[in-house]
Write a structure and sequence with these properties.
Length: about 290
């Protein structure tokens, strides 16, 4: 049994549009979790419905430490998304992952600590598994799309999520290398955790812009990051279109579609009605069974 694809694209700096999008229109979608980064650009490419959300808003008015990732994931779920492909600028913690390369992320080390990282809490406690935090099916297709766009590729990367908005100190950067991290960024967490709670398969393409500051004599600056993003962006846009065009005609279900199945631990007589009302999109499939 298959169903149609609706792909949510979360684009970072340098990726504010999807080329070849038909019937495109920006739609404001309200969320009970607050204000999302922007309206959602809705359209289609062939038979695939596409929903694009600029992570920092058009023109980049929102900093990485101010993102309302709960609202962003919630509005993509409300827009009918079945899967999410995220594209984000990252720094490299490995010599062989040089600026200009694209990294398909497989694992995360989460050092973010100020942004709300769950839709659940008192009145409805849930614990989803994050052992394998990305969707292998989407990640494989994303890697093929980057290859097709002639981008240099690294796969199986571990992403260190830092809070920001400041860049790392040298001591931090070197410590993260010792931890086994390969790339570093400020936005993929709690985004990936929230996507899992929303039962949305998630994959991340990291656009490598710099070497962070672990190398002697080097430091990151915004000018360097922006310049490399502009170089990377055309390949990224091409890869997104290739990714969408290469999707199978029908979508087979994923185990992630049922991530909440055994995650809720709160007894039914202790459920908080107000929280359940806010979860109407994120956990609608599960709550409809209650």
């Amino acid at each position: 049994m298959t169903s149609p694809w609706t792909i949510g694209i979360i684009g970072g700096s340098g990726l504010y549009a999807i080329e070849g999008l038909e019937d495109a229109q920006w739609i404001a979608i309200e969320s009970p979790w607050g204000k999302p980064s922007d309206e959602v650009l809705c359209g289609r490419i062939g038979d695939v419905r596409v929903r694009f959300l600029p992570r920092h808003g058009r023109g980049h008015p929102i900093g990485p430490d101010e993102l309302n990732s709960r609202a962003n994931i919630d509005v993509l779920k409300r827009a009918g998304c079945t899967d999410i492909l995220a594209i984000s600028a990252v720094g490299s913690l490995r010599e062989e992952i040089e600026p200009g390369r694209f990294a398909i992320v497989e694992q995360f080390i989460d050092r973010s600590n100020r942004k709300p990282n769950s839709f659940f809490g008192s009145g409805l406690v849930a614990h989803v598994s994050m052992a394998d935090p990305v969707c292998p099916r989407l990640s494989e297709m994303a890697a093929a799309a980057v290859n097709g766009a002639k981008g240099k590729l690294a796969t199986g990367a571990t992403y260190l999520a830092m809070e920001g908005p400041q860049f790392s100190t040298r001591a931090e950067s070197r410590m993260y290398r010792e931890w086994g991290a390969d790339v570093i960024g400020m936005t993929a967490m709690p985004e990936a955790k929230l996507a899992r709670e929303a039962e949305l398969p998630y994959a991340l393409i990291g656009m490598v812009t710099d070497y962070d500051c672990w190398r002697d004599g080097e430091a990151v600056d915004v000018g360097q990051v922006v310049a490399q993003m502009q170089i990377n962006s055309q390949i990224a846009r091409d890869a997104v279109v290739r990714f969408i065009n290469a999707l199978p005609e029908g979508r087979q279900s994923s185990p992630i579609d049922y991530a909440l199945e055994d995650a809720v631990i709160t007894a039914p007589d202790q459920h908080d009605a107000n929280l359940i009302a806010k979860l109407d999109a994120v956990a609608g499939r599960l709550l409809s069974q209650s």
